[in-house]
Amino acid sequence: MGRVEGKVALVTGAARGQGRSHAVHLAEEGADIIAVDICHDIASNDYPLARPEDLDETARLVEKHNRRIVPVQGDVRDRTALAAAVETGMSELGKLDIVVANAGICPLGAGGSAAAFIDAVDVDLIGVLNTVHVALPHLKAGASIIMTGSVAGLLSSASSGSCPQGLGGAGYNFAKRVIVEYTTTLAVKLAPQSIRVNAVHPTNCNTDMLQSDPMYRTFRPDLENPSAAEAEAGFRSMQAMPIPWVEPSDISYAVVYLASDESRYVTGMQLRVDGGATIQRGL
């Protein structure tokens, strides 16, 4: 306990899934939280996104650990609104030490829609850039920036670019690949200021994004309307270890480590929490 005691963390996509898990685990270890989530759907994304009551539940769970939280409904694609959210949070919590740029979508079901590609890139890449860039003026030595990547970001450009998930999947994979280079470049440039920059790359993670009809169809293209149970075999094929997915908490353990002073000399890392998904592909 207390591994990030007294620190303040900005977490995007905090209303549910990985974002909620990160916020709660950081609070459990002593951090106060600025929690941002869009809390409404994006038209090209075929599974429902979080709702305001989900963000309220995140706040309740953080407060159970006797930590403060400033929940803000905001869209990471809107840099002005995101900057205002950070200012609102800092006005109450006083500072900013940790940035977890986590918000993401994967609009697999939109087929050939250009909007699906645009929205995936705007949320998963531009949203990450916006989050980091509005936070940077407030960060001091010892701060930690953590980005949520994906196994998709570690695959080759050729294999990712030819993915079968349509334009939405291609946009998701493209965004995650760019995050790899962005993390490395920013880590080098911020190292003289003792600000660390790392990315965590999950494999299939047991969230609403994964447990959705578009994702089931992606992993079982041989079936017209696969069930969750039928999709599980496809999910298992991703990892070298005999698992269909990891849990959000598995990613949160990595986030807490990278947020804490335990990793004070760790920067530029592409940390895989992937059950061997990349090593079985020779990466």
UniProtKB/TrEMBL annotation:
NAD in keyword set: yes
Enzyme class, broadest EC rank: oxidoreductase
Keywords: NAD, Oxidoreductase
Coiled coil start-end: none
A Gene Ontology molecular function term of the record: oxidoreductase activity
Pfam families, A to Z: adh_short_C2
Entry-linked Gene3D superfamilies: NAD(P)-binding Rossmann-like Domain
EC number(s) recorded for this UniProt protein: 1.1.1.-
Family the entry assigns: Belongs to the short-chain dehydrogenases/reductases (SDR) family.
NCBIfam families: PRK12826.1-3 (NF009467), SDR_subfam_1 (TIGR03971)
Protein name (database record): Short-chain type dehydrogenase/reductase/MSMEI_5872
Organism from which the protein derives: Mycobacterium innocens
